[in-house]
C-alpha cells in the first residue's frame, strides 16, 4: 500500500501443503535495494528459484551500471523474466513496492504469472486471500498516509483478510519503506 | 378444548410424513421432488463426489459428468472440521472446533458442532451441517418418544442403531453425515460413530474431519482408560488445539463437553489460537 513518500508491504509467513501447515517462518518479501521491496505469492519452489534469479540479476546490474536499480526498472525486469517463460510459466504473483526518484514518490506494481503489469496508485494485493484483502484495503485506504498510520492500516487489513482465509495466517511480517530506511515488524496472528 | 394426545398427533403428522414408530424405524420418509426421476435430480443438485458405477461406462465420460455435476451443484457443503470423542473410566469426553469453510473461504468461526440428543447423550456434527443438525434433532425426538412409551432411558447402542437404519435408507442420496453418538447408560460410557454411508462403529476413541489425523496423533499418544477427569479433558482440548494449528480448515473456538452418570456438561469454550499461544508459553516456562 502507498502512503505519503512511503510504502508498506505485508504478508503472512505460512508454508503449507493443501490443508496441512508445514512451516511458520517462510519469508516471501525480499529487499532488492534500499528503495525497492519485492514480494511473491504462489508456488514455493518458484518463489525460492526467482529470489535467487533476481538476486543474481541485480548483482550483475549493480556491477555493470555502478548504481542501484530503480523500482520501475526492476518491475519491468520482473515482467520480462516472467514472460520469457510464457509457455511454461512460474506460478507466482509478484508485487513490487518502492520509492521512485529524487522526491521519493511511491511506486507500486503487480503482475500476473506471465508478466502483465499494473501500476495502481493505492494498493496491490495477491495470494489465496486476495479477494478478502481487496475488500478490506478498499475500505480502509486513504490517500497521503504518514508512515505510522500506513503501518496501522496495512496491519489491520492483513489481519482481517487472513482471518477469513483458511490457507493464510500462522504469523505475518510488515515492512514499511521510507526515505530513512525499512522498518520491519512481526504481527501476532491467529494460529488456527 | 384439546387433549394432549390429539395435539401430539397433529404435530407429528405435520412434521414427518408416515411416521410409524412401532412397525418400522425407517419408514419416515423425507419428501422427494414430484418429478420423473427424483433420485437423479437429488444427485445432480448436490454434486455428488461418489459416482454410481452402473451409470458410467467410459472413464472420460465419467470425469466429464463429475465435473459438470460439481459445477451445477447448488448445495455446496461446508466442509473442514475436527471433532473427537473418547470414553474412559469416569465418562465420555467430547471436544470440537467451530470453523466452517466453503472452499478456502472461512464462512464462520462460531458453528455449534455438538448437538444435544437428550440430557445424557450428545451427537457431533461433521460433514453437511444441515444434514447432521436435522438427523440429530430427529434422533432426539425418537429417543424422547421411546422413553415415554417404554418408561426407561434409551441405550446409546439403540439410539445409534436407530440413526444408522435411517441413514442407511438414504444411502447414495448425497447426504453427508459423520457423526459420533456419545453418552452414558447402564453399560457405562458409550461411543458410536455413525456415517451417511451406513457404517456404525463402536470404539473407545474416534476423531472425525479434515483435522482428524492431527488430532489422532495427540489423542493416541496420551490416551489411557484410567485417566483422571482433568487429564482427560486436557487431552481432548490439546488434541483439538493441535488439529486447529496444523489443519487450515479447522479453527475458531474449542468446546469441550463431559458426560457421566449425571448427564452432559459443557466444560469449556476457548479460542483456538489463544490456547495455542498459552501452551507455547507454558512449554517455554517448563523448559526454563
Automatic annotation (TrEMBL), chain A:
GO biological process, alphabetically ordered: proteasome-mediated ubiquitin-dependent protein catabolic process
Coiled-coil portions: none
Gene Ontology CC: one annotated term: cytoplasm
Pfam families xrefs: Proteasome
UniProt keyword annotations, A-Z: Cytoplasm, Nucleus, Proteasome
Places the protein is found: Nucleus
Taxonomic superkingdom: Eukaryota
UniProt cross-references to PANTHER family, sorted A to Z: METALLOPROTEASE TLDD (PTHR32194), PROTEASOME SUBUNIT BETA TYPE-3 (PTHR32194:SF10)
Descriptive protein name: Proteasome subunit beta type-3
Species whose genome carries this gene: Anaeramoeba flamelloides
Top-level taxonomy: Eukaryota, Metamonada, Anaeramoebidae, Anaeramoeba
From TrEMBL, chain B:
Coiled coil segments of this chain: 45-72
Taxonomic superkingdom: Eukaryota
Annotated Gene Ontology cellular component terms: proteasome complex
Keywords: Coiled coil, Cytoplasm, Hydrolase, Nucleus, Protease, Proteasome, Threonine protease, Zymogen
Compartments where found: Cytoplasm; Nucleus
Major place of residence: cytoplasm
CDD domains, per database record: proteasome_beta_type_5
Catalytic reaction equation(s): Cleavage of peptide bonds with very broad specificity
Record-linked InterPro entries: Ntn_hydrolases_N, Pept_T1A_subB, Proteasome_bsu_CS, Proteasome_sua/b, Proteasome_suB-type
Similarity section: Belongs to the peptidase T1B family.
Assembly, per entry: Component of the proteasome complex.
Function: Component of the proteasome, a multicatalytic proteinase complex which is characterized by its ability to cleave peptides with Arg, Phe, Tyr, Leu, and Glu adjacent to the leaving group at neutral or slightly basic pH. The proteasome has an ATP-dependent proteolytic activity.
Protein name (record): Proteasome subunit beta
Organism whose genome encodes this protein: Anaeramoeba flamelloides
Amino acid at each position: 500500500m502507498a502512503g505519503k513518500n512511503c510504502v508498506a508491504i505485508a504478508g503472512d509467513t505460512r508454508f503449507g501443503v493443501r490443508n496441512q501447515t508445514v512451516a511458520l517462518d517462510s519469508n516471501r518479501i525480499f529487499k532488492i535495494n534500499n528503495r525497492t521491496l519485492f514480494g511473491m505469492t504462489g508456488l514455493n519452489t518458484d518463489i525460492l528459484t526467482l529470489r535467487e534469479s533476481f538476486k543474481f540479476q541485480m548483482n550483475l546490474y549493480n556491477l555493470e551500471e555502478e548504481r542501484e536499480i530503480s523500482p520501475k526498472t526492476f518491475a519491468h525486469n520482473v515482467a520480462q523474466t516472467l514472460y520469457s517463460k510464457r509457455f511454461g510459466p512460474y506460478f507466482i504473483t509478484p508485487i513490487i513496492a518502492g520509492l521512485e526518484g529524487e522526491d521519493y514518490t511511491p511506486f507500486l506494481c503487480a503482475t500476473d504469472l506471465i508478466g502483465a503489469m499494473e501500476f495502481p496508485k493505492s494498493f496491490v494485493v495477491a495470494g489465496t486471500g486476495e479477494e478478502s484483502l481487496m475488500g478490506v484495503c478498499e475500505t480502509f485506504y486513504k490517500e497521503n498516509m504518514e508512515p505510522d498510520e500506513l503501518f496501522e492500516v496495512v496491519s489491520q487489513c492483513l489481519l482481517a483478510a487472513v482471518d477469513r482465509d483458511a490457507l493464510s495466517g500462522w504469523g505475518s511480517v510488515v515492512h514499511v519503506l521510507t526515505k530513512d530506511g525499512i522498518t520491519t515488524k512481526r504481527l501476532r496472528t491467529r494460529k488456527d | 378444548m384439546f387433549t394432549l394426545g390429539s395435539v401430539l398427533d397433529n404435530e407429528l403428522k405435520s412434521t414427518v410424513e408416515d411416521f410409524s414408530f412401532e412397525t418400522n424405524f425407517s419408514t419416515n420418509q423425507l419428501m422427494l421432488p414430484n418429478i420423473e426421476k427424483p433420485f437423479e435430480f437429488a444427485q445432480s443438485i448436490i454434486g455428488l463426489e461418489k459416482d454410481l458405477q452402473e451409470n458410467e461406462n467410459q472413464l472420460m465420460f465419467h470425469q466429464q459428468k463429475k465435473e459438470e455435476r460439481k459445477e451445477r451443484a447448488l448445495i455446496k457443503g461446508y466442509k473442514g472440521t475436527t471433532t473427537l470423542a473418547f470414553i474412559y473410566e469416569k465418562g465420555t469426553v467430547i471436544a470440537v472446533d467451530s470453523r466452517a469453510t466453503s472452499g478456502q473461504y472461512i464462512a464462520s468461526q462460531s458453528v455449534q458442532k455438538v448437538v444435544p440428543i437428550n440430557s445424557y447423550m450428545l451427537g457431533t456434527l461433521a460433514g453437511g451441517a444441515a444434514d447432521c443438525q436435522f438427523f440429530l434433532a430427529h434422533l432426539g425426538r425418537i429417543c424422547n418418544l421411546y422413553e415415554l412409551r417404554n418408561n426407561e432411558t434409551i441405550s446409546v447402542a439403540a439410539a445409534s442403531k436407530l440413526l444408522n437404519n435411517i441413514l442407511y435408507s438414504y444411502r447414495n442420496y448425497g447426504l453427508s453425515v459423520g457423526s459420533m453418538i456419545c453418552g452414558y447408560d447402564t453399560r457405562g460410557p458409550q461411543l458410536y460413530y455413525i456415517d451417511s454411508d451406513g457404517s456404525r462403529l463402536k470404539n473407545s476413541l474416534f476423531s472425525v474431519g479434515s483435522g482428524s489425523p492431527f488430532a489422532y496423533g495427540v489423542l493416541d499418544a496420551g490416551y489411557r482408560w484410567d485417566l483422571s477427569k482433568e487429564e482427560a479433558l486436557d487431552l481432548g482440548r490439546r488434541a483439538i488445539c493441535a488439529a486447529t494449528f496444523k489443519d487450515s480448515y479447522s479453527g475458531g473456538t474449542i468446546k469441550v463437553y463431559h458426560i457421566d452418570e449425571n448427564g452432559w456438561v459443557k466444560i469449556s469454550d476457548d479460542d483456538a489460537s489463544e490456547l495455542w499461544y498459552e501452551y507455547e508459553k507454558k512449554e517455554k516456562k517448563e523448559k526454563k
